[in-house]
Design brief:
Blueprint lengths: L8 H9 L3 E7 L2 E10 L8 E8 L11 E4 L13 E6 L2 E6 L16 H18 L1
C-alpha cells in the first residue's frame, strides 16, 4: 500500500487496529486517505467498497468533510441516494457523498480524527437505509 504522506500516529494506529487496508496518496496536490474493503451495511448493492477521505492541509486541527466511494453505492430498494456527485480520482469516477457536519455536531479540534469521521460515515450510510 502506498504511503505518500503520513497521518497522525493515532489515526494510523486506529486504521491498523481495525485491520483496515489503507493507503495515502497525493493527487493534483490534494491529500487522500483511501480505505479499501470498507464495510457497507446490508441494504446496499455492495458489501464493501473503497472509501476515500480528502485530508485537508489543516488536518487534524481543521476538519474532515464528506466521503467518496468506489464502486458507486446504490440502495437495493431502488430508491435514489440524495446529494451524490461524480468525482474523478486516480482515473476513476468516485461517488461523492455531500454530507457535512452541522452546528450541533461541529469538528472538535483535539477530539475528532479519522476514527470519529468514520463513525459519521457509518451514520450517513445507516441514515440512507432508514430513509428508504
Amino acid at each position: 500500500m502506498r504511503r505518500e504522506f503520513r497521518l497522525p500516529e493515532g489515526d494510523e494506529e486506529h486504521l491498523n487496529g481495525c485491520q483496515l487496508s489503507w493507503e495515502t496518496i497525493i493527487e493534483a496536490g490534494t491529500r487522500w486517505l483511501i480505505i479499501h474493503d470498507y464495510p457497507i451495511p446490508t441494504g446496499y448493492n455492495l458489501r464493501a467498497a473503497s472509501a476515500a477521505l480528502r485530508v485537508t492541509p489543516s488536518y487534524p486541527d481543521g476538519g474532515l468533510d464528506m466521503v467518496y466511494f468506489h464502486p458507486h453505492l446504490a440502495l437495493v430498494s431502488g430508491l435514489t441516494i440524495k446529494a451524490l456527485t461524480p468525482h474523478p480520482l486516480e482515473g476513476r469516477q468516485w461517488q461523492q457523498w455531500s454530507r457535512h457536519r452541522t452546528p450541533q455536531n461541529p469538528w472538535r479540534s483535539g477530539v475528532d480524527d479519522i476514527s470519529t469521521h468514520l463513525l459519521l460515515v457509518d451514520d450517513w450510510l445507516s441514515r440512507e437505509l432508514n430513509r428508504s
